[in-house]
Each structure stands twice: as C-alpha cells, then as structure tokens.
Amino acid sequence: MEVGLEEAFEVAGEFGGGQRRLTAFLVLLQVYVACQSMLIVLVGAVPKYRIDTEGIPASRAELAKHIHFVDNFTSIVTEWYLIEKDAYKVSLASSLFFAGLLIGNITFGPLSDKLGRKPVYISGLFFDVVFGYVTALAPNYDIFAVSRFFVGIVNGGMALVSFVLSQEYVGKSFWSFTGSLTNLTFAVGIAVYALLGYCVREWRYLAFVSNSPGVIFLLLSFMLPESPRWLYSQGKMAEAEDVLQYIALGNGKERLNLKLKPSAGTMRQDDSAPSILALVKHPVLRWRTIILMYIWYVCSFVYYGLTLNAGELRGNLYLNVALSGLVEVPAFPLCMFFVEKSWSGRRKTMTCFLIVAGFSCMFTMVNAGLLLSPTLLAFCGKMLVSAAFNIAYIYTSELYPTVLRNAGLGVCSMSCRFGGILAPFVPSMKSLSPSVPFVVFGISGLSAGFLTLLLPETLNKPVAENIEDLQSPKYQLLKNKEAEQAS
Predict the structure, then answer these.
(1) 40 with 93: CB under 8 angstroms?
(2) Predicted pLDDT of residue 213
(3) Phi and psi of 84, rounded to 5°?
(4) Strand pairing report for 259-260 and 2-3
(5) At 2, is the secondary structure helix, strand, or coil?
(6) Which long-range contacts does 373-377 make (Cβ < 8 Å, 24+ apart)?
(7) pLDDT digit string (tens) for 245-278?
(8) Quick one: CA torsion of 310, 297, 430, 309, rounded to 10 degrees?
(9) Which of 169, 227, 157, 167 is nearest to 395 (CA)?
C-alpha cells in the first residue's frame, strides 16, 4: 500500500520498543554532552589560597614559590597559577567554549540537512572525543584553551544533530516527550558530573574520565539508522522504507508491505538541498526565524542572568553544581503536562513561562527578601526559563520543515549563545542602580513571551517536510483559522 510518511509511522509504530531503544541511546548521550559543557566549572574552579609574601611578586616563577592552595583538589588554576593578573584566563577558556558552540550550532545544522543526520553526528562525536582527550592531556594553558574552543564547535554541533535525530525517529505526537526527556537528561548529567568531580579531585583525571564515555557512544553510534524523515525529504524513498521496516521489526511487528508516496516538493536525488539562505528568502520562514532567534536569545540571557544575579550559593562546591542541574528537573514534567493540552499547547505554554519568569525578575527587584529569598526566586525563575527553553527546542523543531530543520535550529542556537555571552556583563550595571539588571532581564522575558504569540500553534498539526508544504491548503487553513481567532 502507498502511504504518506506520517501514516507509515503509524503503521510501523510511533514509539515502539525499537524507537525506545534508539531514543534512549541518544537521550543518554546528553549526560556526556553535559559533562563536556560543564567541564570548566570544576576544572577551572579557584580554590582558596594565600600568598605568604608582602606585595606582588615580580614574576610568575616567584609567585609560584609563595602561593599556597588550601583545598584538596586540583584545577587549571592550581597547575598554571591562574590567579591575580592571569585570573581572566579561566573565563577566557569558558568564553572560547561558548564561541565554539556558536560556530558549531550554525555550521552543523546546514551540513546535516545536506549530508544527512548520521554522518554529521558521528563525525562530530568523533572529534568531540579526540579534542576532549587533548583537553585532559594539554601540556600548557594555550593548548587547553584552544582544545576547549574546538570541543565547543563539535560538541554543540553534535548535540544539536543528535537532538533532531532523536525527534525524527518517532512519530510527531511523541516529539514533546522525547524533546523533554533529552533536556531532562542534560540537567541530570550536570548532577552526574558533580558526582564525578566529588570522586575524582585531580582535574586531568576528571577530564579524562568524563570524556571516556564518548568512546562507547561513538562505537555504538555506527549501529544507528539514518533519519527516515531526512531520507524522505531528499526523495530517497527506498532508503526511508528500509529504515521504517527496521523500526517496525524493532517494535515487534511483521515485515510491512508499504510504499511511501512522495509529498509535494519532495526532492529528487539530483536536486540540491535548500541552503540556509532559504530561512530569509521565504517570508514565512523569515519572520519565524527572527522571532525564534530573539526567543532563544532571551532564554539564554535570562537563564544565566538570573543565576548570576541571585548570588552564589554558599557551601559545598560539588553540591552547588549538582543543585544547579537538579533545580531544572521539575521544569520538564510541567512542560509535558501543558504542551500536550489543547487549551495551552506549545505557544501559550511558552508565553506563560517566559512572562512569569520576567515577572520573577521584577519581583526579585522589589521583594528585597521580605517575602521570599532572592535565591529562591532565582531558582524559581531558572526553573521557568528552563521550561521555556525546553519548549523552544520542541516548538522550533515543529515550525521548520524537515529539509531546513537543522539549519533553523542551528541559527536559533547561535543566537542563544550570544545571550550566554552577554549575560555575565549585565551584573556590572548594578553600578547604575541595584535594580537595573533585574529590569533588563524582566523586560527581556516579558517581550519574548509576548512575541511568542505571533507564532502559529503546532500542537496536533502536520509536520512540514518541505518548504512547499508551508503553502499547502492545510497550512493555509491553519493560517486562516488563526486570523479569524485574532479578529
């Protein structure tokens, strides 16, 4: 029988045992991604120290003779004496990682749209492991910093492609579940990294141990099939049918007798894939991209800003790192509950989360600790922004057609990195007034929340496989209904 792609997923099983295994593998990969992302937090930690000399030593060698670190763990700070005038180098290494993420997000997306999800994902994971070991074995700070830059490129790009791949293995009705599960596992991965840091106090061993699971994931990744949605969007019907047969057999079903029918605008094998310029060439995609880029930017901006402005937690370093991840865990059940309800959906839920997070900033400004502690408000705000961030991944995946999904996610992820880079500079605005940073974050959250209302709802709506699908009657009908509701 000849069926469309969504009907084929229903026949093969939208989320059977085979897809659960594929998704579980890619979800668990997020623990490795989190360890690489959070590496600098412990590897670059600054222990308490004292200098047993008066004045400032004339040279680095002289400084090393007089400095004494108190705590019983090592870091790049203790090995290369990154204190005093060289203290900025820890932040520089962190900034280089985020700069790498920015490049990886914008390059790996279009590459995977053109070359396929699997080859780009495996290549990224391979170089992630290689540069991860270079980080652990770096003989000096310069090589360490450069390795962190390249880890950022391949780690950010690989994580983006793996997220899309996990979405495209299952039916659309399970995208919110797999997307939420992926982000939840990343948050848990932060706590796992804190546990590793507590057990392994020598920074090189910690970098080596946290990078080693990547080897296992790399070897097992060769067994993953290509995305059936990408194959379908490229006009590779036979290959897409083979993957769907593989999924059906993994779900415990007998061999299926199905044939995929091409959708309007399905690419022929001799056609070239749409370039990233298609995001600005087509009016519908242009406005979606502009709005989504701002939303992603604000999510990152407010997320890191709330963390920095709430004040550092006192107490055990490893417990604080673990809490910074675990505090996000409640956000994901909230997402799962609201995004699948017809009366809330993706758009209204993300709007509410962003607006409430914005008001949390404002309330932190006027509360002054009278009703709720600033730290508690910061945790609440961080949870809400994490929820909005989680929805942003799912929502963005559904707003872009398959042939441009990775490119769209890549551009949005790139804008989010700008938010992470700018957020640390906002606390310096306290010199103007203590309330200024919170006003900035509050206005940002509120504006992004209201802008979300300009996007279409995607709950229970068909997935666009090609750009032409956005002009199909069913999408036009959706557009007309929204116009009627707005009037």
Answers:
(1) yes
(2) 94
(3) 55, -120
(4) parallel
(5) strand
(6) 374/310, 374/311, 375/310, 375/311, 375/313, 377/310
(7) 888 888 877 777 778 777 655 555 445 556 677 7
(8) 10
(9) 167
Q: Say how many C-beta atoms besides its own lie within 10 A of residue 199's C-beta.
A: 11
Q: Give pLDDT tens digits for 375-393.
A: 667 778 888 888 998 899 8
Pairwise CA distance, residues 254 & 248, whole Å = 7
Contacts of 276 (CB under 8 A, 6+ apart): 106, 109, 110, 404, 407, 410, 411
Q: For the chain, what is the radius of gyration of the CA atoms?
A: 24
Helix (H, G, I), strand (E, B) or coil at 194: helix
37 Cβ neighbours under 8 A, 6+ residues apart: 97, 155
Please name every residue paired with 69 in a beta bridge, in sequence order, or none if there are none.
49
> Could you tell me which residues come within 8 angstroms of residue 196 by beta carbon, excluding any fewer than 6 positions away?
35, 206, 209, 210
- Site of tokens 């990195």: 417
Instruction: Extract the tokens encoding 170.
Output: 């299952």
Token pair in block for residue 86: 């060289």
Q: 54: which 2 tokens?
A: 């008066």
Terminal Cα-to-Cα distance of the chain (whole angstroms): 43
Pairing relationship of beta strands 49-51 and 2-3 according to DSSP bridges: unpaired
DSSP string, 260-287: EPPPTTPPPTTSPPPPTTHHHHSHHHHH
- Residue 424 vs residue 309, higher pLDDT: 424
> Do residues 166 and 182 touch, judged by C-beta distance below 8 A?
yes
**Alpha-carbon separation of residue 410 from 163, 177, 293, 397, 413 (angstroms):** 11, 21, 10, 11, 5
- For 234-352, where are the E strands, in sequence order? 259-260
What is the rounded distance in angstroms from the CA atom of residue 244 to the CA atom of residue 241? Answer: 5
Task: Specify the DSSP element, H or E, that contains 432.
Answer: none
Sign of CA dihedral 223, 229, 235, 238: positive
Give me the phi and psi of 169, to 5 degrees please: -80, -20
